[in-house]
Amino acid sequence: MRQVKPDVFEVGAIDWDRRIFDEIIPLPDGTSYNSYLIKGSEKIALLDTVDPPKKDILFENLAQAGVKKIDYVISHHAEQDHSGSLPDVLQAFPEAKLVTNAKCKGMLVDLLHIDENRFMVIEDGQEISLGNKTLKFILTPWVHWPETMCTYLAQDKILFTCDFFGSHLATSDLFARDMSKVLECNKRYYAEIMMPFRTIIAKNIEKLKDLDIEIIAPSHGPLYDEPRTIINAYKKWIDEKDVANKVIVAYVSMHGSTRKMVDRLVNSLMERGIGVQQFNLVNADVGKIAIEMVDAAGIVLASPTFLTALHPAAAYAAFLVNALRPKTKYLAFMGSFGWAGKILDQLQQMLAATKAELLEPLVIKGLPRDDDYTKIDQLADRIAEKHKDFVKL
Ligand code: FEO
């Protein structure tokens, strides 16, 4: 249990050892499931719970805080890393009302089979009083599920945001102190989880702008007592015009032909003053690619033909680009084939949701020859032209 302010405590759990989330997202720095206890002069509220394997820590912290009764349990988000221990909490505190919005209620009933009689459904902007402290609920949908919301504690100027502004970072710091590390983890979290919803995130940030916020208290990672830092970082990441002079070159090569194409393109781009982040898709950290997608001006995918199609590692990368919908301005493809393939048709289908321009693909037969290298240099020229259009050089 850690005190945030008088009568406001963090009672969740740090998960130092967790290394994967949703069975896909790498967690190189662990994570935490922050849960908050607010003791008002008349009522007590618990804000979110923890991932079920960590529920014993939550109950130990509640016991340490001397909690005998909880009046309100606030659920900001139905995903189980925050909601999964709700059934145990509601059983332990039978008088507690589960406070959330209508959409979240439906999801909690479906996901956790919580008794409908336990709920108190609130509307956007509604408040409940704990006596000397007041909780105001602000619906902030799609950060990153449709039911997500925040709670503002006016007397202490704390905004509880659940996943919004969170980071997968296990740290003993209650408040963010190692800012370069925290922002790296936050950018990773934004890239993997929030980026596809950046248009609505911009609206949610706008909705919060009139609140007097001293502390942002997310449900993953450290809290922010200088909230402008993280809000401004989000604003930069979601700004469609803010792209860096940088290209992601993500490739897989089976017998070296695609690798030679990549080597030539990377050198050619560097000669033109363009930054490159190169990833071998066979062993790359998906999270690092996602981080680069936040502000890279372009992405080049390179793949050999594998059973007439994209190599599966390249298909996975194309799937991620399509799903995460980065603000990348252009996409390019390079590849090689031995006898035949439908690689370009497949690629276009897989990238159907992206708005980025697809540059003329470059597909060659076998090992690159001199005229192929010339074509690769021409692709670097086209990319350099795009950067003149989109990047503040
Ligand atoms: Fe941390 Fe979307 O749950």
Question: In words, what does this structure look like?
Answer:
With 393 residues, the chain is an alpha/beta fold. It folds into two domains: 2-238, Ribonuclease Z/Hydroxyacylglutathione hydrolase-like (Metallo-beta-lactamase, Chain A), CATH 3.60.15.10; 247-383, Rossmann fold. It is 34% helix and 25% strand. The strands form five sheets. Strands 1-2-7-8-9-10-11 form a seven-stranded mixed β-sheet. Helix 5 (179-194) crosses helix 7 (227-238) and helix 6 (198-207) packs antiparallel against helix 7 (227-238). The longest helix is centred in the last third of the chain and has 21 residues, at 370-390. The radius of gyration is 24 Å and the shape is elongated. The structure holds MU-OXO-diiron. MU-OXO-diiron (FEO) binds next to helix 2.
Number of strands: 23
* CATH homologous superfamily placement of the largest domain: Ribonuclease Z/Hydroxyacylglutathione hydrolase-like
Bound molecules: MU-OXO-diiron
Fraction in helix: 25-40%
Q: How many helices? A: 12
Structural class: alpha/beta
Q: Per the principal axes of the C-alpha atoms, what is the gross shape?
A: elongated
Radius of gyration: 24 Å
Total domains: 2
Low-confidence stretches: none
State the major sheet: 7 strands, mixed
The largest beta-sheet arranges its strands as 1-2-7-8-9-10-11
Please give the CATH class of the largest domain: Alpha Beta
Average residue-wise pLDDT: 96
CATH A-level architecture of the largest domain: 4-Layer Sandwich
Termini distance? 48 Å
Which band does the percent of strand residues land in? 25-35%
> Would you give the CATH topology of the largest domain?
Metallo-beta-lactamase, Chain A
